[in-house]
Amino acid sequence: MPAFDSDAETDPRAAALAAIEDARFDEAEVHLRAALARAPQDAMTRAILALVLADAGRPDEADAEAARAVTLEPFLPFVHWVQGSLRVRRGRPAEAIVAAREALALDPEDADHHALLAQCCALQARWLDALGHADRGLDRDPAHAASTSLRALALRALGRDDEAARAFEDAAALDPLDPLAAAGKGWSALGAGDRNVAVAHFRDALLVDPRSEWAREGLLVALRSRNVVYRTLLPAFLKLGRMSARQRLLVAIAGVVAFRVLRTVAAASPLLAIVAWPLMGAYVVFLLATWLADPLLDLAISMDAEGRRLLGPARVRGVRLVAIALAAAIALAGIALGAGDGSLAWLAAGTALLALPLGSVTSCERGWPRTTLAAWCALVAAVLVAALALPTRREELATLALVLGVAGTWLGGWLVTVVPRR
C-alpha cells in the first residue's frame, strides 16, 4: 500500500489509509471518494478504493474501479498489482497472471509483483513455479514477508516439510500478524504429530483473519485428530491432500487394480486368501475413511459451540445428512437381513453409497461446484425413494442408484478441487 506524506486531517487519502489500517472500510471509502471528487483522474487513489471495496465485500465494484485505474494510468505498476490481487481473490489466477506480468514488466525490482505471481501459481497448483517466483521476490527483498510465506507454502506442497516448517517460522518472525504464516506453523505442527501446538497456531491465525479457510480447516483437522483412528490415518490423509487431482486419480486406479488382483489371488489359492482378504478389507476401510471420516467426526465436533462455529450452518447440515443416510442404510440392511430380501440389500447399499458424495457437498466451493454435486445427490436420493416406493422395480432402481452413487463419488472428488470464477 503506498504512503502519503500529507496530514490525515487535511488530506483525505492519508485519512483513508489510517482508516484502512484499523479495518474501518466504510470510513476509508468516504475519504477516498472525497479525494476522487477533487481529482477524479487519480489512478492511485482509485486503485486503493478498489482494494477497500473488495475488503468490504463488494467485488464487482472493486473490479470496475481497478479497471478504470488501469485505463487512467496504464504505466503505473501499482494499478496492475491491484487488479491482479483482486483477480486472485476471486479465483481467477490465469487473468491475475496477465496483470501481475504487466506490473512486473513495469517494475521488475518490486518483490510484491513476484509474490503476486507466486500466489497465482499456487492457486493453479504449479508449486515449482510458485517457489521460483517466491525466491525471486526474496532476491529483491530478503525480508519480504509475503514471498517468505508463499515460499513456505510451496515447499510444503512439494513435500519438503522440514524446509517448509523453517520457512513458516521465518515468515512469522518477519510478520507476527501474518495469518498464512501462523496457519502454516499449525499445519507443520500437525504433520509432526503435535496437535496441541497446532491448535494454538490455528487459533492465532483465525484471531488475525477470521476468514482464513486454510486456518479454519486446519483447526477442524486438529480437532478431528482427537480420535485415535483418524490420528493414525492422518499422515496418509495429509499426503493425499498434497497430491494433484491427476495423482489422486492414479492412486485410485492403482488401488482398484490391486484390489482385483488380490481378489483373483484369493479365489485361486485358499492359502494366499488368508493374506489377501485382510489386505482387501484394509483397502476398503481406508477408502471409506477417506470419504466418511471427515463428515462423521465433524458430526461429533458439531455437538459443541466451537465446533458449530468452525463448521458453519451449511456444513453442520451436510454432516447431519451424511449421518441420516448411513443410519437409513444400516436400518435397511437390518430389515433386508431379517426378511431375506435381496432387493432391500441393494437399496441399503445404494443408500450407504449416497453418503460418500453427500460428505463432499459442503467441501465444494460455493457456486456451481456445490450446486452441481447437491443436485446429483438429490437425483440419487430421488431414485432411492422411487425404489422403496416401487417394490416391483426395486432391484432395477437400486442398481441405478448404485451406479449414480459411484459416479457421484468421482464427480465429488473432482468438484472439491474446482475454484469457480467469482
Assign an overall shape.
elongated
Order of helices and strands: HHHHHHHHHHHHHHHHHHHH
Helical percent range? over 70%
What distance lies between the first and last C-alpha atoms, to the nearest angstrom?
24 Å
Radius of gyration: 26 Å
Low-confidence stretches: 4-8
Strand composition percent = under 5%
Give a short account of the largest sheet.
none
What does this structure look like?
Helix 2 packs antiparallel against helix 3, helix 7 runs antiparallel to helix 8 and helix 11 runs antiparallel to helix 12 (195-208). By secondary structure, the chain is mainly α. The model is unreliable at 4-8 (pLDDT under 50). The radius of gyration is 26 Å and the shape is elongated. It has helices spanning 12-21, 25-38, 43-55, 59-72, 77-89, 93-106, 111-123, 127-140, 145-157, 161-174, 179-191, 195-208, 213-224, 228-242, 245-268, 270-301, 305-339, 342-361, 368-389, 394-415.
Summarize the structure in short.
The chain is mainly alpha-helical.
Task: Jot down its keywords.
elongated, single chain, mainly alpha
Chain-wise SSE layout:
Layout (H helix, E strand, L loop, with lengths): L11 H10 L3 H14 L4 H13 L3 H14 L4 H13 L3 H14 L4 H13 L3 H14 L4 H13 L3 H14 L4 H13 L3 H14 L4 H12 L3 H15 L2 H24 L1 H32 L3 H35 L2 H20 L6 H22 L4 H22 L7
Helix pairs in contact: 1-2, 2-3, 3-4, 3-5, 4-5, 5-6, 5-7, 6-7, 7-8, 7-9, 8-9, 9-10, 9-11, 10-11, 11-12, 11-13, 12-13, 13-16, 15-16, 16-17, 16-18, 17-18, 18-19, 18-20, 19-20
